[in-house]
Design brief:
Immunoglobulin-like; four-stranded mixed beta sheet; mainly beta; 1 helix
Length: 148
Amino acid sequence: MSRRRFAIACASVVLLAGCSSGHAAGSQQSGSSDPGTSTKPKCPSGALGSGHFKLGTKVQITAQGFSPQVLVTGMGLHVVWTNTSSTTQSVHFDNWGSPVDSGPIPPGGNWSFHATSTGSAVYHSTYSPTFCGQLQIQLTGNGSEPGG
């Protein structure tokens, strides 16, 4: 599938999926248990990113939140969150089905998630509950997915 068709397909899925869809399977990577992981997110209702998204595998955690707020990636890839803020942050998936939590990510640190199946995950930082993001995992069309 051409990059343009992949981007159009991803954009369509992001717009249709919104923030409410979830997935019951995926990589079960959990960081250390931390008292901050029980913090409830204070994410805005409605679509994250105001319809804007980025294709790729990298998310920055800045002093303002996750950038990009909505990331579309391919199944089988590793997504890396890098904390460029001056405070400890985390990545906690709210609706993945199985627990996924990075544990503390210190300033300058990073954490990766292996996207082993398609789906949509809304996530937040347990240290800054207004920091919210969404990960959309799509089939890549490169033959690496089951049946591909």
